[in-house]
Records
---
Amino acid sequence: MLRSRRPLHRRFVAIVALLWLAHPVPGWTWGAGTHHYIAQNYSKHLPALMTGLCAYDSIVNLHVTDPDTRKGSVPGESYRHYIDADYYPAFLAGTLTHSRATLEAQYGASVVLNNGIVPWAVGENVATLTQQFQAQNWSAAALTIADMCHYVGDINQPLHCTQNYDGAMTGNSGIHSRYETTMMTSHIADLHTSVMPVTYYASAVDAIFDNLTASWAGVSTIMAADNTAKAASGGSYNSTYYTSLWTSTQDMTRTRVDAATQMTASLVYTAWVDAGQPVVPGSNAGVAPSAIAGARLDAGPTPFRDHLTVRYAGAGPLNVDVYDVRGARVARLVDGASGAGSVSWGRASSGGNVGPGLYFVRLTGPNLNVVRRVTLVQ
Ligand SMILES: [Zn+2]
């Protein structure tokens, strides 16, 4: 996640204020601990045919903070670490385009750049990684994975997804470094990520935006936690404050850090599948590449108002479930089926209990995990 996320001209006032308060400048930067944690844990999720990449874990860990280091020397780098998603009214309505070109046509390229471009930076990483896998250039791929680990980590820090990145809009000024640096430095050792399945993304950028939406939901959690902690400590940023801040945010924080490790592994897996599943030297034999062949999941139309049609196929037993943006399962549509089939879901079939918003339809089966994103509108 992070560090000073803003381009210099936007950070100037904050930096001057910090200097005036005699805070050491490093205090404004992300204690790199969370980035390193994600780099050290992503590869545990890789499927058996890709475990050879674990030989590069130390390279990924060594280079995971390079994107922050580059900010001073590579023009435009600083914009690649965040997106002020809630600047765009369409984001709040669940209809924000995932196309940078479309957004630039609407707002102008400089506005889009200033509001941050992290989703497309990750999309570029996936395309680069696919080419490196095709060329079987594993050392170059490790450096791309390090970059991807970094940017995916940034996306999963909710304060990298909002205009209110330092709490100034809600009376929570200074929360950025209190949350991501001071608090996290004390609690890295409390994190524990379990092995989770990877997902193949038909569209990496769509998946990245889905992840962004889930991450952004943590902004209000952090601001409320700051208010609660300040009330408990009498306004001092002492151990009472930080204990309270961690208590209120740890569930969300663990979810986001775990999601960053899983998403990085899934993006690496997606690039490998798109590259034609080249043999990764040193990997365990096991899962047959053909396991995912013939698997299919379609869900549409999206956006939809009343009925969503879900078509699936694959070697069973297959399950199809629907999750909301917070990761809660709201419906099981298929339970242990095999072959191909079709089901529908929507307001009527759920007794009117589902509201408008973003949902994820997930097909799971042996060595199979495919997700489609759909939007239910009013
Ligand atoms: Zn960053």
---
Amino acid sequence: MAACTNNVELGFVEKSPPWRLLSQFFPSKVGGKPAWLNLKEVPKSKNLFCPNCNKTMTFLLQIYCPPPTGDEDDATAEATAQSTCFHRTLYVFCCREATCHQTSNSEDQKSPFAIFRCQLERRNDFYSYEPPDEDSQVPEKDIISPKQFDVLLCDVCGCNAGDRKCGKCQKAVYCCKDHQVMDWKIGHKAKCGKEFGLHDATPPANNKFLFPEFELVTEPESEEYAAQEAEENIEKGSSNEDLRLVGAGLVQTAVELENGYMSTKDLDRMARKETDDDVQFMNFKKRISHDPDQVLRYQKGGRPLFVSANDQPSEKDIVPCSCGAKRQFEFQIMPQLLTHLEVDSLDASIDWGTLLIYTCSKSCTEGPPYHPEFLWKQDYHNSSIS
Ligand SMILES: [Zn+2]
Ligand SMILES: [Zn+2]
Ligand SMILES: [Zn+2]
Ligand SMILES: [Zn+2]
């Protein structure tokens, strides 16, 4: 992830050798297990329980998005090295139960998502001061992992397991009973009690709890598209108005037919809302049609691309950070990501129009090293789908 810029950075998924997605390469990635930045204070599963079903949430994605470093004269370099925010990674988790995703934002206690922000100084307990060599694979002995800091990760989900181990072999590690049962079925049963090395846990291919793993690569969106959109919106000012008049005209007819069950004003308002929503949805589709594979849009402090005119968060909906500072928009997850997660089922599945992530505008260091942040889900409005 490039440092924060004024333009929109688009995220795409790509297959990548697994070693490139290790913590020491500061990866941006989708699926698999999280690559923790702070290796000592990894969140425990109780911080990842879904408030609806009480199951541990699954890692969805992380993006590495440090603040810009500026020109590297000596004074700036030293200031940057001492800044509490040289490395910065954002994490998103979500519940895997489709029924937990039927909630709306108004029930914010029941969000099936969890967001964390983690930051480190350039001089820290875990990583070298110099950036890693991204072209050479690290030998197994040089892999930096939470194990070196006495943190055991769950063999199934990769979160902090505390000290819960398989009672029989004392080797396999789990964050919760559910994951122990899951692992027993998918492979541990055959291995329990036999010798196995550190990296010889159940093969990830059998692990249906995790999402498929990809690297998340970014590219700037062409500035032209934003400029085009602004221009068209000015031109379209009148045509939106035309659409509204058509809507109002239909309403008039409806009123005559129904002999006034609703006031003209109410119906007019309804028609306008639907028209605005169609326009917003067309805008959304048009903007992403230039790069249809984008799974993420990053623009710290920028404006999200809304999927609908309905259910946009107002300023008071965005809960401030626990430090008191406002939260600002940082990135959004696009519906295209769903096609890579293999979550489709016949009756119900995890679904969203877009997920908007807001973070502390001060990138504060208050609270836990994995600091909770805020997510707003926007669904497609019914009229958009038809
Ligand atoms: Zn749930
Ligand atoms: Zn687990
Ligand atoms: Zn065992
Ligand atoms: Zn804050």
---
Amino acid sequence: MGDGRACGRACQFIQPDYPALEIASHGTSADLSHPDQRFFGPHHAMLRARLTQAAPGAQWSGITTTLAARLLESGAIDAVLTVAPDPDDRWKPLPVIVTDPAQMAACRGMRMGFGPTLALLEPARDAGHKRIALIGIPCQVHALRALESELGFERIYVIGTPCSDNTTTENFHSFLKLLDPNPETVSYLEFRADYRVELRFDDGRSPKTVPFLKLPISKLPADFFPMTCKTCVDYTNRLADITVGYMAGEGDQWVIVRNARGAEMLELLAGQLHTAPLGSKGNRTGAVKGFLQNTERAAGGLPLRAMPDWLRPVVAFLQPRIGPRGLEFARARVEMKAIETVLHLRRAFPARIKNMVPAHVWAVLAPMGITPSQGEQRGPETPAVPPTMPPTA
Ligand SMILES: Cc1cc2nc3c(=O)[nH]c(=O)nc-3n(C[C@H](O)[C@H](O)[C@H](O)COP(=O)(O)OP(=O)(O)OC[C@H]3O[C@@H](n4cnc5c(N)ncnc54)[C@H](O)[C@@H]3O)c2cc1C
């Protein structure tokens, strides 16, 4: 953005004001006494869904890019802001303004890296686009919402995806090298909800899956995931009109409709969507407790307590069968992210906790006995954004 001072308000990692932005976006903020809203943010409906005909090249069935294509086709918008694969590196996100619905097909799939999609807001406005859609991960959507009222668009449809962690495209290439002897042939990667990473290839090999427990995580550098991702407070993209993910979908997608605009978008897929209620199985308590203990050790500088090699295949076999699934799996991941956020901030940037950690994260952590210490919570009299935020750009 041209206005450098706007960064202070836009950045999710400085002083986010989720209740205010939720009210501005959805007309209401999350009811933290409601178990699903506490974990997943404000919503009218959550469902398990998939396109009856999966879109080729999509990360899952392609609900995300098809929603955007339908918005263009219906004339509701003039342009979509999203990322396409960089022509020189398919894993690198390249921000693009799409005006032809057929071009959404080229944007399908997940890329690892940070695409400066919001840098296209001003060019899109200058090109005369008045109604747009933006597809983004939570930190991008937070920045969009914080600035939305000043951008001068008539209408912005916000399609969000959840995001557990992101990294640089360079780091991601190092990860691929550890996973496969021919990393340049990997055309698809996903951390699935059945505790396996799926890899697809474009050299004729069949897809393969690797249990999470057998991933070479210990070989990754400590800064593989940046501190921002490790301390992210919004896994489920709570400010999007509609969130399209997979964590609770048990093999299908997981759609969270947050407001009337989200419902309007979903309506555009009527007749193309197979839907079902979300399931919830297993008990997350043990898995989350183990994660908490390991994160405490890591935050205290101690090595992670590794599972003995002989036990790994047994647990890798059992996890998808008896581990938490559906909504229980999604709740476990949200709790794990909340644990990481607070423990990493306490270790590395304790002074930031007061401004960075919103009430919904403390609400998720409270049943585990993790509560704000003195000075870790903003008083109600403190404005969310100080009137004289210093320039940060
Ligand atoms: C870094 C990252 C982490 C994610 N982690 C999770 C997770 O933990 N749990 C979960 O449920 N879902 C997660 N997702 C979302 C998931 O991978 C799917 O994108 C989502 O389920 C939509 O599937 P689809 O078939 O509808 O998408 P498609 O129709 O294939 O469309 C995918 C859309 O995502 C956009 N996109 C791809 N890469 C990026 C990127 N780097 N930055 C911004 N936009 C991008 C594409 O441009 C496209 O518009 C993550 C996505 C990203 C980018």
---
Amino acid sequence: MSDADNNATEEREAFDRDSTSNTLTIAIGLSLVCSILVAGAAIMLKPIQEMNEVRFRQRIILDVAGLLEPGADIEEGLDRIEARVVELETGTYVDSIDANNFDPLAAANEPATSVAIPEELDIGKIRRRAIYAPVYLVSDGDELSQIILPVRGTGLWSTLYGYLALEPDGETVSGLQFYDHAETPGLGDQIEDPAWRAQWVGKKIYGEDGEPRMEVVRGTVAAGNPYVQHQVDGLSGATLTGRGVMNLVRYWTGPHGYGPYLEQYRQAKGT
Ligand SMILES: Cc1cc2nc3c(=O)[nH]c(=O)nc-3n(C[C@H](O)[C@H](O)[C@H](O)COP(=O)(O)O)c2cc1C
């Protein structure tokens, strides 16, 4: 073997690309670079994601308020909505909390800012709720035209997140819309069906005794029955999701939800 061949063999042995240490060094280096890139992207994208989340929720609120017709001016619609925070137990407004930056779901996860829901009252099966909660007041000129309440509760497979809109009388439904759930497509996801949602419009959430009375019946609502004004059809093949919606609406309009707020509102209005 010539000197040149010997040198080349020595160099190859000195730098064996396939050695375990080289493989490890390259793998670790590559993972480091990738982690830095992923972490950097996540940090940079976070404000954009948060902004998109806010816009998404705003659109749903506009939609449930009927202000998202094709061609509607979104900014104009948003100008008509005032967000306020309510202390649920007393039903009074709390102006020291910025309603636009208040996250009731995050607050519900913190022991200091939430309460456990007594089991007998937890018909929506959410276990905890925040002490404070936002309400969205929609105005038409100088008049209040709708009150929008965030609602959530358990369906069959998942938590259903949505908004319930009420007429200015504080008890007639003007809209119900869910923006997040994981119910089965074709079954539980009929809660998004515009025809089913339309059935809620005009229904009364309270019975004569002042208790939440909305009911998702099994099958179809029997015309002429005395409870028609509180009833909507069941969802075929998805009775359990429908029952979840009924229960969450009853919870949030009841004494442990927005009930005290709505009662005070109605008393102040004289309705
Ligand atoms: C794969 C699968 C998915 C289902 N998804 C739902 C659902 O999302 N919501 C629901 O209420 N029922 C769902 N069901 C049906 C329920 O298990 C239950 O049978 C139904 O809610 C009863 O309603 P019904 O009396 O109207 O048939 C599902 C069933 C199967 C097999």
